[in-house]
Design a protein that fits this description.
about 210 residues, alpha/beta, Rossmann fold, 8-stranded mixed beta sheet, two-stranded parallel ribbon, 5 helices, about 20% strand
Length: about 210
Amino acid sequence: MKIAIIGAAGQAGSNILRESIMREYDTTAIVRNQATLKENVQTLEKDLFDLTTADIDVFDCIVNAFAPKSGEEHLYVEAGKHLVSILQPTKTRLVDIGSSGCLFTNKDKIVRLLDSEDYPAQLTAAAQYQLQHLQHLQQSSITWTFICPARMFDAEGPRTGHYITGYDYLLKNSQLNSYISHADFAVAVIDEVENAKHLNEAFTIASENTTSAS
């Protein structure tokens, strides 16, 4: 399987890249600056907005870990529209990295996390635009999957290889924490690339931890 990872030098993207390489997939990192990569990997040095159908048609799956800087969160939507446009003529599947803010707070599905009183204000814009992007995917004709991390997304946590899955509301582990490490999130992403269990669906994951989280 040929996999390309957009934003492969970022926090989430670099872990996904490492997991894909470890599993010996034919992996390409799509980045604006090859020098930012820590892994020795095939590279397509190109801005997301400059990607063409010809660039991505050679891959079985594109993982989109694009993350714009603060103040440019609207680019989640613009980037999504561009990817949908260039993917439409292809059979390439899109696996998109979402936000926990897109999820409902519980099974009642009344309030989304991004609208809850204790959701960090600095994360609200990103979650709002990622939710818009998800809605655009749902109306598109491409084959996609949208994966949301747990509320506590731990960059330093271990890779256990174990996690639970759910759909559109926050999952909590046995300690009642909504938690996933970046490493285990990467495991779940590559599992989805490999097994395609959630085609044209959004889902979320959580795992055990020893850190208190909400």
